[in-house]
Amino acid sequence: MAGEQKSKAKMEQAKGKAKEAIGRTVGNERMEAEGRADQAKGDARQVKEKTKDVFKH
Question: Residue 1: is its pLDDT beyond 80?
Answer without folding.
Answer: no
